[in-house]
Known about the structure:
The chain is α/β, with parallel strands linked by helices. Helix content is 33%, strand content 22%.
Amino acid sequence: MGAEASRRTILVATTNAGKVRELRAMLGDSVGWKTLADFPGVGEVEEDGATFAENARKKATEYARATGLWTLADDSGLVVDALGGAPGVQSARFSGDAGPGADRKEIDRRNIAKLLRLLEGVPPEKRTARFVCHLCLASPERVLVETQGTVEGLIVDEPVGDNGFGYDPVFFVGTLGRTVAQLPDDEKNAISHRGNAIRRFMPLLNEVLAGSVSQDGR
């Protein structure tokens, strides 16, 4: 992207520090990035969609209208075949809604504990699962870009590894022989659902940035 395009500021619509770190690492600094922490007066958008795509689209469009900035939102989660697709869009709230100021690591621990309880007695070959990430970029007027990425794996019967967040410690990637929580950041980003969505997203972002420069000089 050229110097003119780099002046575009994009809001990353999340307060999840792990997501922010991953997104910034992969998206780079060719545009200015802000997060919801920069807008403490903006109310939280309720994630009440039936799909990852619906939630990402709702967050991107509503936060864009509230802030006046192009907004990148993602909705992502874990889909477990033996549980009929659960936890799905409820992944972050699988063990119940957390109150204000709740500790993210404790929430992750409770979510994993519930997942493993539900999978007790399910043989390893039936524990197939995937992480799904849907990305949506919107201006205050319209949706600009949408992409989706996935990564396939198995749910192991106990957490392994200290990296990552969410369900990473129990998500085993067979081709690597490790859980996602055992991977350093660069290896995780190379195979992750979010990484795959972002790799599809970046050329489309370049296109819309180039178009915005030609239209309004920004």
